Amino acid sequence: MRKQNFSLDGNQLKLIAVFFMIFDHIYSYLFLGVWPAWFSLIARFVTPLFVYMLVEGFSRIKSKEIPD
Q: What distance in Å separates the CA atoms of residue 42 and residue 63, rounded to the nearest whole number?
């Protein structure tokens, strides 16, 4: 039996990050005192993920000049 490799493309990573970002916002605005504090830690990987995607997208741009 062949083992399949697991991979995610950029759009799937973005959807996962958006889901966890929405989850974090719902937690911080509605359930701050109700749910345990570790719920907020679940979504803290979202910012580095978005920064990584931003830098990766910027590195693929051919013209890096800022237009006037």
A: 37
